[in-house]
Amino acid sequence: MLHPNLQVSKEGDDFPVDIDVARMSELVKGMLDEDNDDDEDTEIPLPNVKAAVLRKVIEFCQHHKGEPMTEIEKPLKSARMGEVVQKWYADFVNVEQVLLFELILAANYMDIKPLLDLTCATVASMIKGKTPEEIRKNVQYCK
């Protein structure tokens, strides 16, 4: 199976990825579809995604291929992500806020709907039932 090389040009790190995993990103899928070269090593520049964030994005996509995420009900039925999605996904987004927001940006840029849904739902769960003052106090990006 093809292994496109997703490259983060900022750091220059290469990430070999199975084609079916790479195609979860609509951005990457479009680039692969435009690439008429039969070369097995297709380099796809992702200048807006840091290497550490891309590593997490790939981890998500690989897991999602084997165990698709339960669709997230809207509005959220709980502020606890473990009650909204499977345990692996709840654990996946249990990260520092800075990384969570970087994952949102990467999911949006790379057009990966399940990851964008999960990360945005996580932010929604962080603010669910909170006052504006509590949100400003607890969400780092509001400071």
UniProtKB/TrEMBL annotation:
<keyword id="KW-0833">Ubl conjugation pathway</keyword>
<comment type="similarity">
    <text>Belongs to the SKP1 family.</text>
</comment>
<protein>
    <recommendedName>
        <fullName>SKP1 component POZ domain-containing protein</fullName>
    </recommendedName>
</protein>
<dbReference type="GO" id="GO:0016567">
    <property type="term" value="P:protein ubiquitination"/>
</dbReference>
<dbReference type="InterPro" id="IPR016072">
    <property type="entry name" value="Skp1_comp_dimer"/>
</dbReference>
<dbReference type="InterPro" id="IPR016897">
    <property type="entry name" value="SKP1"/>
</dbReference>
<comment type="pathway">
    <text>Protein modification; protein ubiquitination.</text>
</comment>
<dbReference type="InterPro" id="IPR011333">
    <property type="entry name" value="SKP1/BTB/POZ_sf"/>
</dbReference>
<feature type="domain" description="SKP1 component POZ">
    <location>
        <begin position="8"/>
        <end position="65"/>
    </location>
</feature>
<dbReference type="InterPro" id="IPR016073">
    <property type="entry name" value="Skp1_comp_POZ"/>
</dbReference>
<dbReference type="GO" id="GO:0006511">
    <property type="term" value="P:ubiquitin-dependent protein catabolic process"/>
</dbReference>
<feature type="domain" description="SKP1 component dimerisation">
    <location>
        <begin position="113"/>
        <end position="137"/>
    </location>
</feature>
<dbReference type="Pfam" id="PF01466">
    <property type="entry name" value="Skp1"/>
</dbReference>
<dbReference type="InterPro" id="IPR001232">
    <property type="entry name" value="SKP1-like"/>
</dbReference>
<dbReference type="Pfam" id="PF03931">
    <property type="entry name" value="Skp1_POZ"/>
</dbReference>
<dbReference type="InterPro" id="IPR036296">
    <property type="entry name" value="SKP1-like_dim_sf"/>
</dbReference>
